[in-house]
Design a protein that fits this description.
Blueprint lengths: L1 E2 L8 E7 L4 H11 L5 E5 L11 H14 L4 E6 L3 H7 L7 E3 L3 H9 L5 E5 L5 H13 L6 H17 L6
Helix pairs in contact: 1-5, 2-3, 4-5
C-alpha cells in the first residue's frame, strides 16, 4: 500500500485500487491526482499488470476502508466496472456507480451520494478517465428534495422487503 502524501484529517481521503486489467490507467491516475494538495490518495491495488488478482478482493478492501473513513471515497479500476460495482454494493453504506462519463459521475455524487466510482478501463481512454475521476472527486452531494425522496424510497425497500436497495 502506498500513499502520495500524508495529510491531516481535513484532507479528502481517496482509496484507489485495481486488478491487473486496470493497473496501467490506475497508475497514471494515481500520478495525476498527486498534484492537488487537498487529497490523501492511498493505492490498494496490485503492483504489476502481470499479477493476476480478483477484482472482488481489492473491492472488498476498498469498500471496508471507505466505510471506516467517513467522507472518504474509493475508486476502482477494472476491465468493465461491473464486477467491482456489484461487489462494492453488497456492503451496507456503500453506493458504487460505474463511471462511463462525467455526467454519470456528477449525478452519482450529487443525487445518490455515491462513495465509490468503478471505472471500466476497457472502454475508456486516459483523458476520459481523468475527467470522470476529477468530476467524481470534485462534485459534492446536494441534499435536495429529489435526493431525499430517492433515499427514502430505497431505504424503505430495504427495510420493508428485506432487500439491499443499492443492488
Amino acid at each position: 500500500m502506498k500513499s502520495v502524501k500524508a495529510f491531516s484529517d481535513n484532507h479528502l481521503k481517496i482509496f484507489i485500487g485495481s486488478d491487473n486489467d486496470g493497473y496501467e490507467i490506475k497508475n497514471r491516475i494515481y500520478v495525476s491526482l498527486g498534484v492537488p494538495s487537498d487529497l490523501l490518495i492511498t493505492d490498494i491495488g496490485v503492483e504489476s499488470s502481470e499479477i493476476q488478482t480478483d477484482a472482488s478482493i481489492i473491492t472488498g478492501i476498498i469498500s471496508s476502508l471507505v466505510l471506516e473513513n467517513i467522507e472518504s471515497k474509493g475508486i476502482l479500476f477494472c476491465k468493465w466496472g461491473i464486477e467491482t460495482s456489484i461487489m462494492a454494493n453488497k456492503f451496507d453504506g456503500i453506493r458504487a456507480i460505474v463511471g462511463i462519463n462525467t455526467d454519470i459521475a456528477m449525478i452519482g455524487r450529487e443525487i445518490y451520494n455515491a462513495n465509490i466510482l468503478c471505472i471500466p478501463t476497457e472502454i475508456l481512454n486516459f483523458e476520459s478517465v481523468r475527467d470522470i475521476v476529477r468530476t467524481f472527486i470534485d462534485t459534492k452531494f446536494v441534499n435536495s428534495m429529489e435526493s431525499i425522496r430517492k433515499s427514502y424510497i430505497m431505504e424503505n425497500l430495504q427495510t420493508q422487503w428485506g432487500i439491499k436497495w443499492w443492488i
